[in-house]
Amino acid sequence: MANVPRFKLNTGALMPAVGLGGWGGSTKEEREQAWTFMLTALKAGYRLIDTAWIYGTEKATAVAIKKSGIPREDIWITTKLHHQHGPFAEKFLQESLDNLETDYVDLYLMHWPQTSKWVEGVSEPTDEHGDIITTDEWTFNQTWAKMEKLYESGKAKAIGVSNFSIKNLEKLFETAKVVPAVNQVEMHPYLAQQDLKDYCDQKGIVLTAYTPTGYKTVLSDPTIAELAEKYKASPAQVVLSWHVARGVAVVPKSSNEQRQKENLTLLNLDPEDVKRVTALDRNQRLCNYANERGKVWGWTYEQLGW
Asked: Is 111 annotated as a binding residue?
């Protein structure tokens, strides 16, 4: 089994540095079948599954864990509170726990800082342009206070945030009693976010990267290709190893068994090579970026602090 390092959170818990991204696709069928690639990952040695209420793969996660035969306490489950559910955090954590067939999650993240409007039966209400309708009547500070109670209850062994900038973390700290254990953000060599990394290090927050390999855009970069050749490894292995060398956890999504195994096998990059990869930074978002109206899930870059 791959020897995956673990990062110590401010709770004292040891979180695997490499996990499996649990996005299953857009259709109900794809989401229901996500257990198949989750199961191959667990068999390959993964011990962290990163899912979310909005992914619709929490039930599939439960199926995969059950079929794997691996004890629940040996698997780290991360799930996320949807941006519409802040005022009802307790109710929706319970829904996630029921979906996951467990009585606790190892990490519960606030998926986005913005709050979208509550519309019964509509999880992502949009305006006439197709932008998420957000509301100022509920703030992420209020959501965090709810999450702190869930942490106290033991139903979430650790709590954190996702898509938070320095600006919004500063706002959060105006009222927070508990420092987030993790901040999960888009991060890859073209979006190295060194300032955010330094800030989170200073605050004792572990960063987790989603879209960690930066798709083919980053994987086809000449520097990455050159390093893959040098280390006799795949471009993805180079990039994932770069993250972990920086102290950043990763949750790559792959349904291919061979790639899952590769992603779990980290390289020992020379410090100079780590610097070379970091130098590729161009502040380029490849997953969540502004549409033609300058919005990302209903908020502007200014609101997001990006």
From this structure: yes
